[in-house]
């Protein structure tokens, strides 16, 4: 547990699914922290100091030491505060959790994003197909578990918050069916469980402003066709 | 330590820097294993069975259970066999090792590859610049350490075997200067230390056939211009 003298801070952007991962992990652990909202159009000196390589959020700062990359931050948090483990204890289960988390970053996030926010029609279609194919793997993987982590939220659930909260927003904006109860019933049920889990619910940004923000982005993109 | 009844196997391709990472890790741990060379033009049933998601090498099999993704395999090996630790013991140092390993995959491997194996001249230039920028970060990071891991090889060194062995081959083929003693003296010295480290030396493929293989690939690509 963080002692009162500890410095724990998170640099994020409220609409970022990657910053949200870190918020969920900290909430699960019950760690208090200072949240610093960044403006990516005018990055703070702190962000440039703490993440000189990528200059991106999230950045996690613990007693003056900074870490970037959301999944790496989540593992650090899990190794630093032992309560409510996020990764399984067995090496093989840990490897699987890391595999599916990486899979979400490599195969789902980019494809789902480009399925909506791409002008080129063909590229949109290719990305929609890729996203669907990737979601099918996750539909098969969740099986009849409540969460990817089993009865409790684990690394894969945290990584997949993008699927549960952000995909429904962007698919509505782009008038696409990516995650629906018809196509992926198990994954859809899981997504409902996840967004209603207390640690997740309290970490998610409010839906309306995020929806409005992405809607404007989408309309600007469509206007540039 | 692996007992004699244990099944430890690696599905790889001799020219793959990713399979080589796993070989180095197993060598450092002194774990005996069965190596199965794959033909990616005609993938084995075993590969399709054990890596149905990506259908790629390396795949690591331990007592019937399979793991894919080279860095995830290396972490699994480190967690399963305790001798000669590959990751540092402190969470912050572990996070940094994971950060730089991911950086190599995200920023170095693809860019260096495309700097050579791309027909489009402009794309080649962009990728060359990106690769150089990424290597500069690593030049700054290695400082005066023998290895990224300090006195001993660690996760970042294993991830970076691509830089030490594969970049010199492909830059010669593409007539490019990426990793040279003039441009990146510290990284160059590190690369010499690394390829001559016994665990690495014994895990690397023979240079000549790899050079010949990539040379043919490069010439076929140039001919298709």
Structure, described:
The structure is a homodimer of 225-residue chains. Chain A is an alpha+beta fold. Chain A folds into two domains: 8-80, 3-Layer(aba) Sandwich (Glutaredoxin), CATH 3.40.30; 91-223, Glutathione S-transferase Yfyf (Class Pi), Chain A, domain 2 (Up-down Bundle). The first copy, chain A, is 57% helix and 8% strand. The first copy, chain A, contains ten helices and four strands; from the N terminus they run βαβαββαααααααα. Chain A has helices at 17-29, 45-50, 70-80, 91-116, 121-142, 155-159, 161-173, 185-196, 198-201, 207-223; strands spanning 8-12, 34-37, 59-62, 65-68. In chain A, strands 2-1-3-4 form a four-stranded mixed β-sheet, with helices on one face. In chain A, helix 7 (161-173) crosses helix 8 (185-196). Chain A starts with 7 loop residues before the first strand and ends with a helix. Chain A binds chain B through residues 53, 62, 65, 67-69, 72-73, 75-76, 79-80, 91-92, 94-96, 98-99, 102-103, 137, and chain B through 53, 62, 65, 67-69, 72-73, 75-76, 79-80, 91-92, 94-96, 98-99, 102-103, 137. Chains A, B: It catalyses: RX + glutathione = an S-substituted glutathione + a halide anion + H(+). Chains A, B: Belongs to the GST superfamily. Chains A, B: Its EC number is 2.5.1.18.
């Amino acid at each position: 547990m963080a002692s009162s003298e500890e410095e724990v801070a998170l640099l994020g952007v409220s609409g970022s699914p990657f910053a949200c991962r870190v918020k969920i992990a900290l909430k699960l652990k019950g760690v208090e922290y200072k949240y610093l909202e960044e403006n990516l159009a005018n990055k703070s000196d702190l962000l440039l100091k703490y993440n000189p390589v990528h200059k991106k959020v999230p950045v996690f700062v613990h007693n003056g030491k900074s870490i970037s990359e959301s999944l790496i931050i989540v593992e650090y948090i899990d190794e630093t505060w032992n309560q409510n483990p996020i990764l399984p204890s067995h090496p093989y289960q840990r490897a699987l959790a890391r595999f599916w988390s990486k899979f979400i970053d490599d195969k789902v996030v980019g494809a789902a994003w480009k399925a909506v926010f791409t002008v080129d029609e063909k590229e949109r279609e290719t990305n929609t197909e890729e996203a669907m194919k990737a979601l099918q793997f996750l539909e098969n993987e969740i099986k009849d578990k409540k969460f990817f982590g089993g009865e409790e939220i684990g690394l894969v659930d945290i990584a997949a918050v993008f699927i549960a909260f952000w995909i429904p927003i962007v698919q509505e904006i782009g008038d696409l069916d990516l995650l629906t109860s018809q196509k992926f019933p198990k994954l859809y049920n899981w997504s409902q469980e996840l967004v209603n889990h207390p640690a997740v619910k309290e970490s998610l940004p409010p839906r309306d402003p995020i929806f409005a923000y992405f809607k404007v982005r989408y309309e600007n993109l469509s206007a540039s066709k």
